[in-house]
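Researcher: Structure prediction, please.
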Amino acid sequence: MTLIELLIVISILALVIVVSIPTMKGTYRRNRLAGAGREFALAAKCARRQAILRNHTTELRIQRKKGLYRLSLDPGRKKTYRGSGSSLEARPMERVRQLNERKGDIRFESIVTAADLKEEKGDISKISFHRDGSASACTIVIADADDRRMTIEILGATGAVRVHQGSPEEQEAVYGPEEERDS
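Model: Predicted structure follows.
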């Protein structure tokens, strides 16, 4: 193998890498949006499960502007006490998560509650999960910097959580109105 052949092979590999970098970046961003949506859906499923197991209401609070959500396992009490050796230690019964580690990259775009069929305008939205497994029905849309969207639906009667690519409008354009899909 000569030096010229080796340089040709290296230049071809470099060209392939340069061409594939934009594609890899787009895939990485899509995966981050999907990961953030799945993580939020997992927190909602955890809230429902804990409401049933603990036999009392749990809440998932969303701070829209900051991109935070809080899973509050006992919203009526601020703290609970657990035994730790010989002393009792106060620990808050909530977990706070960031929708995305990079601020502004992935955001809550809209939160629509089914109870009053309107988009919540305030900064903090609350989803309650009840001891029978039901929940406050809502539709949450998250979006990334490239305006790709993901929809998380929480069904009121069962508390089930569904995750879809795209916004509700995009889903309706592709599959038709939900009433027609269910029949």
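Model: Confidence is low (pLDDT under 50) at residues 79-91.
Researcher: Thanks, that helps.
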